[in-house]
Design goal:
Two copies of one chain form a homodimer.
Chain A: E1 5-12, E2 15-23, E3 31-39, E4 47-53, H1 62-66, H2 70-76, E5 79-83, H3 121-135, E6 140-149, H4 152-163, E7 171-174, H5 184-193, H6 208-211, H7 215-220, E8 228-233, H8 237-240, H9 247-250, E9 257-262, H10 269-287
Parallel strand pairs in A: 4-5, 4-6, 7-8, 8-9
Antiparallel strand pairs in A: 1-2, 2-3, 3-5
């Protein structure tokens, strides 16, 4: 049994937000922190769980402080889990030099490069953290589990959802990286963490190791029903620069997938906090169905 | 006419949050920044205005990022104005050494000490900023104006409201400093900014210059009707340490004053963001009456 150390606790909405840390097996023994919001109602009946995966440069605190998720989560009796975005202190050469790779930029995958061997946020989120939370007996019901995220974390939420049929009731994302095997942040992450080089031509099919983490590819090959909500701001510079490519998902016209483009909104938490209550309500509908 | 320089603009809720800066006469010519949220509806009809005064160490960005005010303000068609908490760069000796005095700690008064002569946040907020905003023709209706704030900013909101009968429709505060002439932050601020020494005995009547900024004293001597809402968390360390003293207000049992104490909540923005939609709705009721 993992020793979960309480770092802090704050009353918020109709529950408590508590920060814990623990040494993570997935991250080669490095200590990782996460925040969990547990509504009071969990004391009498287990509550469903929504994971929030944050974007580049963020931590487990960013969306807790700026995301505006708690009042709706409290009202809907849903627990929220905010993991960190990467290992911390892995001592990989250069890991703190570039905000797009290394610390704060784990990309929610399982690294296969020897150099980045601690970078296994996928394993942490899909396997270890749910186990740790179940063992801690906090009143969370992982048979009702959904996932959301922003930007890199939107990629994380969608790809983790699509790679694990039956695990989650629903997925949503704010300004997600939808087609990482063909866009710069993804190519950079896959080239390094997976140690699989880019194809010689831009038009060539990306390597299969990359496609395993590409939500638009995963969706294309997904056979079951899906419940996906995606919001993107048209004023988002990363959208304009082709980092997000929601068309790669919306053009598939899949049943159960809603992609909404919003005039003027940018990539910031002002965008997220505008729509986050709707996302919590979207998940509540599926978690409580 | 003041030259208002746009620093940034973000779409949020049903409007835009814009940061401006300008050289402030009140602050001896120092440049000050503020954020203003203007709902889209201001384009067709002028909208009422709610000022938010932040607490010690904060800036014009803190509540904009963490306060959770925008969705309700957008829904209610209310503009929000977030001033800074002190002058910046006044070059007073020691102003950056103590988070409780100087930079980030302007205490919303008009300094009468020669040393702190730029520290005139009261004048900025009550007189200059409304004038600057009116001149800029942004669609704000200052005949419908209310004020709120947190901690030091809660003191600011309540004292400014009570010192200016007829200016504001309503005031509210999160964990405000209610009796600053008898509690440490206030005594420290008044002693320094007003250059009026503390009385020789703790039980003596505080100096009249101090009482002019003491909300509990101002309320006692207020003759008109008031609309005041105050929320305080019982888990707030500053409440427990006697910095806030809401009893000095609630014990007066004044009509139109509601003081609510909440189990477990602390001094953080988790507390504020839980109740901020209710505060916006409280002000909306009075602004749109």
């Amino acid at each position: 049994m993992v020793s979960l150390e309480k770092v802090s606790s704050n009353r918020v909405s109709a529950g408590f937000l508590t920060k814990y840390k623990f040494p993570s097996k997935s991250l080669n023994g490095l200590t990782t922190s996460f925040n969990v919001f547990i509504p009071d109602s969990a004391k009498s009946n287990k509550v469903p769980v929504l994971f929030y995966l944050a974007g580049l440069t963020c931590t487990e605190d960013t969306a807790a402080q700026k995301g505006g998720l708690f009042n709706e989560a409290g009202k809907q009796s849903i627990a929220l889990v905010f993991p960190d975005t990467s290992p911390r202190g892995a001592n990989v050469q250069g890991e703190d030099d570039d905000w797009q790779l290394g610390t704060g930029a784990g990309f929610y995958l399982t690294a296969t490069s020897e150099k980045w061997k601690a970078y296994n946020m996928y394993d942490l989120i899909v396997k270890e953290l749910p186990e740790v939370l179940k063992e801690a007996n906090l009143g969370l019901d992982f048979s009702r589990w959904s996932i959301t995220g922003h930007s890199m974390g939107g990629h994380g939420a969608l790809s983790i959802y699509l790679k694990n049929p039956g695990f989650f009731k629903s997925a949503s994302a704010f300004a997600p990286v939808c087609n990482p095997s063909r866009t710069p942040w993804g190519i950079n992450a896959f080239t390094n963490y997976l140690n699989v080089p880019a194809p010689s031509s831009e038009n060539a099919q990306p390597p299969k190791e990359w496609l395993e983490y590409d939500s638009s590819y995963l969706l294309k090959n997904y056979s079951g029903d899906v419940n996906i909500l995606i919001d993107v701001g048209k004023g988002d510079d990363f959208y304009k620069k082709g980092q997000l490519e929601p068309k790669a998902i919306s053009d598939q016209n899949k049943k159960g997938v809603e992609v909404r483009l919003h005039d003027d909104f940018d990539h910031s938490y002002y965008f997220i906090s505008t729509f986050s209550p709707e996302h919590v309500a979207f998940h509540a509908k599926h978690l409580n169905a």
